[in-house]
Amino acid sequence: MPRGEFEFIHHIRRRAAVRPPVRVGIGDDAAVLDHPAGTVEVVTTDLLMEGIDFLWPETSAALIGRKSLAVNLSDLAAMAGRPTAAFVSLALPKARGRSFADEVMDGLLALADAYEVTIAGGDTNSWDGPLVVSVTVLGTPFANQPVLRSGAQPGDWVFVTGACGGSILGRHLTFTPRLAEAERLTQLVKLHAMIDISDGLAADLHHLLDESHVGARVEAAAIPIHADAARLCDPRTPLDHALSDGEDFELLFTVPANDGPRLLAAWDQPTQITKIGEITAESGCRLHRADGTSIELPPLGWLHAMED
Amino acid sequence: MPRGEFEFIHHIRRRAAVRPPVRVGIGDDAAVLDHPAGTVEVVTTDLLMEGIDFLWPETSAALIGRKSLAVNLSDLAAMAGRPTAAFVSLALPKARGRSFADEVMDGLLALADAYEVTIAGGDTNSWDGPLVVSVTVLGTPFANQPVLRSGAQPGDWVFVTGACGGSILGRHLTFTPRLAEAERLTQLVKLHAMIDISDGLAADLHHLLDESHVGARVEAAAIPIHADAARLCDPRTPLDHALSDGEDFELLFTVPANDGPRLLAAWDQPTQITKIGEITAESGCRLHRADGTSIELPPLGWLHAMED
Lengths: 308, 308
Known about the structure:
- By secondary structure, chain A is α+β, with helices and mostly antiparallel strands.
- Chain A folds into two domains: 20-141, CATH 3.30.1330.10; 149-307, PurM-like C-terminal domain (Phosphoribosyl-aminoimidazole Synthetase, Chain A, domain 2), CATH 3.90.650.10.
- The first copy, chain A, has helices at 3-15, 61-78, 97-114, 171-174, 179-188, 201-212, 227-231, 238-244, 259-266, 302-307, and strands spanning 22-24, 31-34, 40-49, 81-93, 118-127, 132-141, 157-161, 193-196, 215-219, 251-255, 273-280, 285-288, 294-296.
- Chains A, B: Residues 27-139 form the PurM-like N-terminal domain.
């Protein structure tokens, strides 16, 4: 996220009064609302713009539609929430006609059906501009209470699902929102904090640490690096790709140290989970290397740290 | 709404399976969700695009921001629902900088504060394209159950709040969402059906009749015509403007015939309410004129009917 947008959001966050039924407003993967009788709701929204978030026709209309919903489902997973209803608004380029609009919705509806999410409303418009898709998703926590970014505690083990880096080779469009993994995690352990990896492993870890007012110690050798990260032909190392690339849409989460070994023993899902470090009381994020040296891991990842 | 978009929405509506907790999906002013313990939620969303829904700088950034939220609050009013939380996504033109973004949000936040609506989340982006604002609003019915478009019954009296026509002279931007009126109505009578006037009195009446599978008889002389409708200098009559213009954001609603006179007697709000006709079992919408003649009132309004 560009610095200007980050500051703008912080400005709105400071100005926007949080009133009931809203419990958690701007600043997490989703908002949290408290309804009567202890019912908790989580709500997230994303706006995808042609030329910024995707290119067309490089990316098919169906994959664009799929991704518009999938990024929101990933946010729900990061709250440990089950998505229930989605609202889809479209700014459609007139020149591409009805078949283009149908393809976008076909991609989106196929994913909605797979996760039993109802497309409950929206707003359709056309213009001479590029495609814009805005999706809002509502859901309910798997275990009654959502998991926030702000709950990490010193001593927690830090885990990540799957493997990171090189998503640009295709996974940024075809990724599976980690909803099944999030639900299983809520059954097995007490999740202290969770976020999905959209900005990059290092950047999103920093978001989680900032909101929790803690730091972390991360083992470089433990980072699960996706095979795609090594397939990219550029001067950056696979580890740097894994730390910096973004759009992995994996889950980054912390559990109490006591629960860590038990989680590793009990984990029975096809998606791997990997312990990559531990939460520390001191702020900052320290990356420890196999040779015994360590560096401060800034939000933008390792390469930038090496250049300092 | 252009015919192509109307057909596209019907296509999505047919395809989109409605699953719990969604009770009412696409097709009303807002969706209705049933949560545990009888808690009912209403959700609506609108996408406003520069060059289509507003012009800049002809319309100030603050008024654009205000309208983006206000149209959603009007939808909530049409469901007889109190808005609680809003989600605001922006595609910001880079060249206009931070001050433009601040002005949009200032206009939006001022209205949110006035109605005690929490801005609970959103998504901010910038690009070289025009301004796009997507707003989703959540709320709860004033009287536990929302009022749908589909509940009108033969014999019902048809009412409208305020006066219609000529909103283009300014009210399309500065209108007051009829939330106070909706709440008072729920206290005084049994509302059978309600919709807000965005497409035009005739068009939105047809939407209500279609969803309720009924018709209506409307008295031309009873239509409350706004002074702005007469200020427009064109060949169309003020009545035609009142029937066709759209963006009045008044409420059009029906109540049982028994409740009609009681409502008129008990009404104590500054905004007028006017009986404009009655619901009929026969489909179609008949406009009766003072001279005793009558014509079929098509969705696009009177002028088009006269040209037939």
